[in-house]
Write a structure and sequence with these properties.
The structure is a single chain. With 578 residues, this protein is of the alpha+beta class. The chain contains 17 helices and seven strands. The model is unreliable at 1-26 and 529-540 (pLDDT under 50).
Length: 578
């Protein structure tokens, strides 16, 4: 039994499965508007349908003129044959006339349907050609053709020239050729006119599709050149005028007045020399000009004295007095007003200085009086926190008390420092300082706080030491304020960039981070005192950090720039290199 089964298995042939044939990939069909052969056929059909419609209209008008619609065919045929009999005609003309009359009466009503069909076909072919112009296989957008490089105005002139030539050709054929030559001439003229018209329309349609077709014209090119020439002339004229104005401004007021007056006199003299009565007018001019020159010079001298007084006041010389001894009329009054302005400004400045000094002394005294009990509060809060107590809330209360006391102490220090900065009483000792060392120190000092706030610090500085003139203690206060501001208001999970670069002979220190709260204030507003970026005031800041940092930077002959771009907060410090 086993041998039989093995034999049957060996004799059994396993037929392979037939794999289903994959359907042939369909070729991508090319639209009709993209096929050249279809365009050629549509072009030919348009020409011949237009010719058919024109010939149909002409035939209908001839049949109306001949009265075919109101005369019976037999009567009309007899009249035609009778006219042919009176003339010297060949035998074949009778056969031609008979066939024409039969065809006319056969098509006298069908001619209107033929005209309508030809017009409809011409319109459809025309619309198709306008849509197909510039379309090519494999391109989704219209492509420039061989004639698009020709300027539009040149193309229009060429088409108008061809049309006028065809019209002249028809007129010549009308007066100087026989009947059959006239028909041939008219037919060829109509054919050429149709070809030229359709080609021109297709070219304009393609230009409209490509856009800015007006720029491809000789007129546009000429206007563009004229505009550039006018711009250059305007720039040269503007530079010349500004140069002349700068040159004129460099001349003192009195000499400037004399130069202008001399130019006016020369112009007047040239006009007088060209007049008829030279002697009488010239003598009058010679008498009046010196007097006018003296008056103008006197006025210019008084204006110069007033000008010097105004420049002195603008420069801060409040004690400067304008000498009004030789001033006349309104000039004297104006000089006295300038003197009173200087006196009033001196009084106002003294009052402001006194007010600032009193305010600084008040803040300093009050801060000193508050620091003594505040120090006791901080010390006793520490002692309470160290004492063993069964009630755990006591330690929490002591921690809150200690934290708020430290905040109040920091606020008092900021107030005192800000008042000293505004009054100019803060001393700064400039010395050579390595900016990179302070940058590294800031990164180390704030590493723990940045980690607690889930902020990643990225530092960058050159390998060579960067030397600047600064007060190390004051500069560290600037770094401290900026890094503290980053820790308070930075968005968790973001990076903080602290970089040091050398650019244009300056040390550029940049702080960049992403704000946690929306920055709904401008950079100038954030730099003001007692202004914070978050309206909720939840981070516990005083609003003086940025203002103090800027004042300290400027005291060390540096600059501080604040930039706000969305949630990006960026501060750039610049100090001159040694």
């Amino acid at each position: 039994m086993r041998e039989v089964l093995e034999t049957n298995v060996e004799e059994t042939e396993i037929e392979p499965r037939e794999m289903p044939e994959k359907p042939a990939e369909k070729r991508k069909r090319i639209p009709l508007t993209h096929r050249i052969s279809v365009k050629v056929i549509a072009f030919i059909m348009l020409i011949f349908s237009a010719i058919t419609a024109t010939a149909g209209v002409a035939a209908a008008l001839v049949m109306m003129d001949e009265g075919i619609y109101i005369t019976a065919e037999k009567t009309y045929r007899e009249n035609i044959f009778q006219n042919l009999t009176t003339e010297d005609m060949r035998q074949d003309w009778y056969w031609i006339a008979s066939r024409c009359i039969t065809l006319a009466y056969l098509l006298r009503y069908w001619i209107y349907a033929i005209i309508a069909g030809a017009v409809l076909l011409a319109v459809l072919c025309f619309v198709f050609l306008m849509c197909a112009s510039g379309r090519r296989a494999g391109c989704d957008t219209p492509q420039p053709g061989w004639g698009t490089w020709v300027p539009v105005d040149v193309l229009v002139l060429a088409v108008m020239t061809v049309v006028l030539m065809l019209a002249y050709w028809c007129e010549e054929a009308l007066f100087f050729h026989s009947d059959w030559k006239q028909m041939v001439t008219y037919g060829i003229s109509c054919l050429l006119l149709g070809i030229v018209t359709v080609g021109f329309c297709m070219s304009m349609a393609l230009r409209f599709k490509l856009g800015q077709w007006w720029k491809n014209s000789v007129v546009w090119y000429c206007l563009h050149i004229c505009r550039r020439i006018l711009e250059k002339v305007w720039r040269v004229t503007k530079k010349t005028a500004s140069g002349c104005a700068a040159l004129l401004q460099g001349i003192p007021l009195v000499w400037r007045t004399a130069v202008v007056f001399a130019l006016i006199c020369v112009a007047e003299l040239m006009v007088l020399l060209s007049s008829y009565h030279v002697r009488s007018v010239l003598s009058l001019w010679l008498l009046t000009r010196p007097l006018a020159f003296a008056v103008i010079v006197i006025v210019a001298l008084m204006l110069r004295r007033l000008q010097k007084g105004g420049e002195a006041l603008a420069a801060g010389e409040l004690e400067h007095q304008v000498d009004t001894k030789w001033l006349l009329g309104d000039f004297r009054k104006h000089g006295e007003d300038l003197n009173r302005i200087g006196e009033g400004m001196s009084v106002a400045v003294e009052q402001r200085i006194r007010s600032e000094r009193m305010k600084t002394e008040l803040i300093t005294n009050v801060s000193h009086d508050i620091k003594t009990p505040l120090t006791s509060i901080i010390n006793y809060a520490d002692l309470i926190a160290q004492e063993p107590c069964e009630n755990e809330k006591i330690h929490d209360y002591a921690a809150v008390l200690h934290r708020q006391s430290e905040r109040l102490k920091r606020l008092l220090e900021d107030l005192v420092e800000a008042s000293k900065l505004s009054a100019g009483n803060l001393e700064v000792q400039l010395a050579p300082c390595e900016a990179g060392v302070l940058l590294t120190q800031a990164a180390g000092e704030y590493a723990r706080r940045l980690t607690e706030q889930q902020l990643t610090l990225v530092t960058s500085q050159p390998e060579q030491p960067v030397q600047i003139m600064a007060d190390g203690r004051r500069l560290w206060r600037v770094f401290d304020n900026l890094m503290s501001n980053i820790c308070k208001y930075g968005q968790s999970g973001t990076r903080v960039y602290l970089t040091l670069e050398e650019k244009n002979g300056q040390a550029v220190i940049t702080f960049r981070n992403t704000s946690r709260e929306p920055l709904n204030l401008s950079a100038d507003e954030l730099m003001e005192r007692f202004v914070r970026g978050d309206a909720a005031r939840s981070a516990g800041g005083s609003g003086l950090g940025l203002s103090i940092a800027r004042s300290l930077t400027e005291l060390q002959r540096g600059t501080m720039e604040l930039t706000v771009d969305g949630d990006l907060f960026k501060v750039v410090l610049r100090f001159p290199l040694i």
